[in-house]
Amino acid sequence: xxxxxxxxxxxxxxxxxxxxxxxxxxxxxxxxxxxxxxxxxxxxxxxxxxxxxxxxxxxxxxxxxxxxxxxxxxxxxxxxxxxxxxxxxxxxxxxxxxxxxxxxxxxxxxxxxxxxxxxxxxxxxxxxxxxxxxxxxx
Length: 138
Known about the structure:
The protein is an alpha+beta fold. The protein has helices at about 15-20, 50-55, 65-70, 75-80, 110-135; strands at about 5, 15, 30-35, 35-40, 85. The protein contains five helices and five strands. The protein starts with a strand and ends with a helix. The model has no long low-confidence stretch (mean pLDDT about 80).
């Protein structure tokens, strides 16, 4: 494989990150989405969100931005016609990895004091305040 790009045995064309980073001009605008390289130059003026949205991501990884917007299935199909290759496997670790945020759920272990003691104390304080208020007014 060449220094900048190469082709795999299965016919996929690979592009190096350094080459993609240079494609951030009006003449040539490339972006990376899920390790696939897209030439969006001809689509700049047609993009519903405006060309500046694509220009901000030009030459870099746009995966998070693309997924956050929630593109339709039609938009995803349209993107296939702009795909020109994939990011070289050696460069995939150079772009920021998008780790999924894991949600940790705590085991719901109710104890006697949260279920009984706290409401009991609140009730006792309210009762005490009520008695003090009513005895002062007499």
